[in-house]
Design brief:
The structure is a homodimer of 417-residue chains. The first copy, chain A, is an alpha/beta fold and 417 residues long. Chain A has helices spanning 3-22, 26-42, 44-60, 65-71, 75-90, 129-140, 154-170, 187-192, 208-217, 240-252, 271-283, 292-297, 306-310, 326-336, 349-358; strands at 98-103, 109-116, 119-124, 144-148, 178-180, 201-205, 230-234, 261-267, 287-290, 302-303, 317-323, 341-345, 363-368, 385-387, 395-397, 403-414. Chain A starts with a helix and ends with a strand. Chains A and B meet through β2, α10, α15, β13 and β16 of A and α1, β2, α10, α15 and β13 of B.
Chain lengths: 417, 417
């Protein structure tokens, strides 16, 4: 069968399953998630054997150590998958929630009901645990899903897919509600992102290259972010202790995450704080790249290029700029930021209020580390990704981000005059 | 200047204005709307003269009567524009509303703040009053807007644009917050829909051809609906009086609107009701096109083709189908509907509940006329359009539909462990 026909069949089954999933009640969805967990536990040996096969193939193909690390399943990662399923089962069901139901002068009652999106396509790279996380979020949010994992994790994903199918069947849900593609042909991705008639949204998870390619070519909406160029701004009135603790955490807690601070802005009246921070960041091995005014205060700083203000370093490198105050900080952020997450450190009420209102990013923080921008930390329970788009979901995307709303109207034979 | 450069300049000014509009407080936005109303009243003679020029040009070009009717401004339409401005000024400001602000175990407070989308591009056809409605909604929702009206309304739109600019200036808001394009070059539309860097969303208002062309070519999100193929389903337990009143209203209140019912589904146990309705619809001059079972009951009915189930007639024509009951009704709707608006007429609690949950359209109604699907009727105060997409805005789109949300996090020097 050629890839177009294969994807057409997958798509039709997913669309059909989405109508069934729309009607499944909360208890049945939770039973399915726990049945999948039980299947994982029962088939643990087979999953690990499949993963070893992928690892061996990966070594044969001389994949990088970083890629092999992401690919490998161990006991800790396996337990995380099982716990993830339990956690998502324990979350409130977003589907069917009705808000703002109110009477109108005509006599009708109007409100909004939360409903699934339909079919969610997920395209990801080497980590096989994404297969479970993504499938679990889609099941709980009443969506059907089509999963396309990386070719290097092919056998791991097929072994995990068997657990998903068995778990769904066990509780009487359609086993086509989650379909893991059985092909590594790259043109399957082109098909997946081109058919609004059977895919309602695509979630690409992976490097910038993957996401950019998908965004540029997709004919269906994409939940995504390209960069996490996050900023922390130390305001005139920042508390010294808070400024140092938050900045160090925002930059050094983890270097490779999208919510790590990449540029530090400091009000020019707080050069004292910059000097102290530069020393502590230096002790942690962070390379500073500063504007001229910063370098006049900290001579060891390298000069920052225009490019550094745009950069997501994902490394122990921090761009540093002295700014005249709040206005320049906001303007710098709204010019250079990727719209992910920004924080102000301040004791000034009006500055905090203005920063929250005027910074145009998906998360905006006061006196807190940018590292908090995360679905778990926000209480979403789980996260399918982070969106920097303003449409629909924005910021960490959990169960609710996989849903839409429809309007409901209740009348009593009411007609329009 | 070529069109690319012209649109680049327009776009840059709009983006710049959007940052200013984001910060404007409610009172200033309301003052601007009322200043525009005052300008309209002051410049009424000039606006009517410009409109007469468009009408003369239209007659010279032999535009259809329907088009000339939409183009013409009269006292009633002029007063509607003025009242629309007052009404939007009186609505609550959606911007800055914070919801779901709650503490997390880490100590941070997390919530969502409603924010403008940025720059809204609006592409519409002959009706000059859209210029005011759309601009007013964008001003109130804190967005900058670029308006591209039909070439046949060019002089009317320029005269109205002068009022918008004067009104914005009068209260100290940037006069680039609303830009009415000063070109009728069609390639300006191609530019408008291709630059995510200066347009955040496009709202096309007009016929299916316009909307389809824009949706297929846009590189920015589009708030739209293509068809309004709405259904009314008369359930087994429908109350006779309600069923007749609602069905007649849904079909005959106005024939040319997108929320008019185009297909009537009747449970086969209620042939009695179909016979009565067929007579009353016939008296109103509505042509019925039925399935075989319907035609066995009402011999005057023409046969329905497969195409009729898909059709938005926008005319006194109604497709009619007898169905076995709720399940077949829902399946028919989810197969043939354009996802706009559907209604069930029933006295059965469980059927009402299932219809609301399982029908996958942007508005779903119980015992009410599909004609209620409208921003004013839903209490949105005003409407920029109706969206059948599941992403972001769905159904009638008012002020809130022109906004997004960002997450806000409040800490006290809180760092992530």
């Amino acid at each position: 069968m050629n890839i177009q026909n294969y994807m057409q069949q997958i798509g039709n089954k997913a669309r059909e399953a989405s109508f069934a999933m729309m009607r499944v009640d909360t208890a049945a969805k939770n039973r399915a998630l726990l049945a999948v967990r039980d299947q994982l536990i029962q088939q643990k040996a087979a999953i690990f054997a499949a993963n070893q096969q992928d690892m061996q193939n990966g070594r044969d193909k001389q994949l990088s150590e970083a890629l092999l690390d992401r690919l490998e399943l161990n006991d800790s990662r396996f337990n995380d998958m099982c716990e993830g399923l339990e956690q998502i089962a324990s979350l409130a069901d977003p589907i069917g929630v009705i808000t703002d139901l109110a009477y109108r002068p005509s006599g009708i009652q109007v409100g909004k009901m939360r409903v699934p999106l339909g079919v969610v396509g997920i395209i990801y790279e080497s980590r096989p645990n994404v297969t479970i996380d993504a499938a679990a979020l889609c099941i709980k949010s009443g969506n059907a899903t089509i999963l396309r994992g990386g070719s290097e994790a092919f056998f791991s994903n097929q072994a995990i897919a068997a657990c998903l199918i068995a778990g769904l069947r066990e509780v009487g849900l359609p086993d086509t509600a989650v379909q893991v593609l059985e092909t590594t042909d790259r043109s399957a991705v082109d098909e997946l992102i081109s058919h609004p008639e059977f895919v309602d949204v695509i979630v690409p998870r992976g490097g910038r290259g993957l996401i950019e390619r998908i965004s540029n070519n997709a004919r269906v909406p994409v939940i995504k972010h390209l960069d996490g160029n996050c900023h922390t701004y130390i305001d005139d009135t920042a508390d010294e202790q808070k400024a140092i603790a938050v900045t160090l955490n925002a930059k050094t807690h983890r270097y490779g995450t999208c919510n790590t601070t990449e540029t530090l802005l400091v009000a020019k009246s707080r050069g004292d704080l910059l000097v102290k921070l530069a020393q502590q960041l230096g002790e942690k091995g962070v390379e500073l790249r500063g504007c001229d005014a910063s370098r006049a205060l900290v001579s060891s700083m390298k000069p920052a290029s225009e490019n550094d203000w745009h950069e997501e370093f994902l490394a122990p490198i921090l761009a540093v700029k002295l700014v005249s105050g709040l206005d320049e900080a906001i303007r710098h952020i709204n010019t250079y930021s990727s719209g992910h997450t920004e924080a102000i450190i301040t004791e000034n009420y009006t500055h905090a209020r203005r920063f929250l209102a005027e910074v145009d990013s998906s998360s905006v923080m006061v006196n807190a580390s940018t590292r908090f921008a995360d679905g778990f930390e926000y209480g979403l329970g789980a996260e399918i990704g982070i969106s920097t788009d303003k449409f629909h979901a924005r910021g960490p995307v959990g169960l609710e981000g996989l849903t839409s709303q429809k309007w409901i109207v209740l009348g009593d034979g009411t007609i329009r005059q």
